[in-house]
Amino acid sequence: MYCLQWLLPVLLIPKPLNPALWFNHSMFMGFYLLSFLLERKPCTICALVFLAALFLICYSCWGNCFLYHCGGAPLPDSAHDPNIVGT
Fold first, then answer.
1. pTM
2. Which of 18, 26, 50, 83 has most Cβ atoms within 10 angstroms of its Cβ?
3. What is the rounded CA–CA span in Å between residue 22 and residue 43?
């Protein structure tokens, strides 16, 4: 379970508020996880616990999932509203 101390803080990194940065954030997090899995080779139990936690966070749409954006969140709709975004 030593390898979980390197994986669990990844779930606590907040997603940026600016929708333009979501792609960069998801690519960075994806490459970090891929490089971690290839370099450190965590045990199977740690990898399964992390993937289960990631799946539950993304499935519940708590707003911190870096893989995709949930459709019900108000930020992307309001980001393109000309009344909110000034000229």
1. 0.65
2. 50
3. 30
